[in-house]
Design brief:
single chain, alpha+beta, 50% strand
Length: 254
């Protein structure tokens, strides 16, 4: 009992000091999570590659989303939720919308769109932004897709430029599902049998953004991806590069 009383007396000044510190402490900064949509929502015309079996590209009018709402985020084709703080960003649970399926044609079986789910982070630093993602295709390929992209920002008059450089790593399971040719397919189609391995694909892109009015913003983006040889050497792949371009008009929520 005596020791307990002495311990309480010894802690009493610390408790009083902590209470006083709490009363005089400066206010905490506001949360990183906005209670309203912050970012862009709109429509765009997208030209995406269909780099297989003699196809060229596909043009579509699609929604465009690049915004935050509380812990939720949308970044073009990547969506998810922010969890705990890590570095200059958050650990994110993310998924991606891919349209990389292949219709059955000339003896080649159908490939279903991948459904990449995984983790990532967006690190916004004084030296630029870093996007890091690690996905697993929970659909047919059961392969992995890793991605690291750096983005800078600079202005020239009313136009803001966002150059980006990065690299994508696809596992052999991912590539072989989409670009491999089985012996049965080879016999039916005339394409040689092929086993695709893992690939490392460099990426460069440039986005230009300009305001149209107080809340309307236009964006023009061009991206090129160089395919690793294990993909580009597939007999059903047309070219060693894939180009994606789009132009969007969106409403900017502030």
């Amino acid at each position: 009992m005596i020791k307990s009383g002495l311990l309480a007396l010894s802690l009493f000044p610390l408790m009083i000091g902590a209470e006083a510190l709490a009363q005089t402490a400066p206010p905490q900064p506001q949360s990183d999570f906005p209670d309203h949509i912050s970012g862009d929502l709109g429509l765009g015309v997208f030209n995406t590659p269909r780099n297989y079996l003699g196809k060229s590209s596909q043009t579509s009018v699609l929604p465009y989303a690049y915004f935050d709402y509380q812990r939720l985020f949308a970044r073009l084709d990547t969506f998810g939720v922010k969890t705990f703080k890590i570095g200059d960003g958050y650990l994110e649970l993310a998924g991606r919308v891919n349209v990389d399926g292949i219709d059955a044609r000339n003896g080649i079986n159908k490939r279903s769109n991948s459904v990449p789910l995984g983790i990532g982070t967006f690190q916004e630093t004084p030296f630029g932004a870093f996007f890091l993602n690690a996905f697993y295709d929970v659909n047919k390929s059961h392969g992995t897709l890793l991605e690291a992209i750096y983005a800078a920002e600079f202005k020239l008059g009313p136009v803001t430029f966002y150059p980006q450089a990065g690299v994508e790593r696809r596992s052999s399971s991912y590539n072989n599902y989409f670009y491999g040719v089985t012996p049965i397919e080879s016999a039916a189609s005339g394409y040689r049998a092929y086993q695709a391995g893992a690939s490392t694909n460099p990426i460069l892109s440039l986005s230009l953004e300009t305001p149209l009015s107080e809340h309307l913003v236009a964006n023009l983006t061009f991206k090129r991806k160089w395919l690793g040889s294990t993909v580009s050497d597939s007999p059903i792949v047309n070219r060693r590069t894939e180009d994606t371009a789009f132009i969007t008009v969106s409403y900017r929520f502030k």
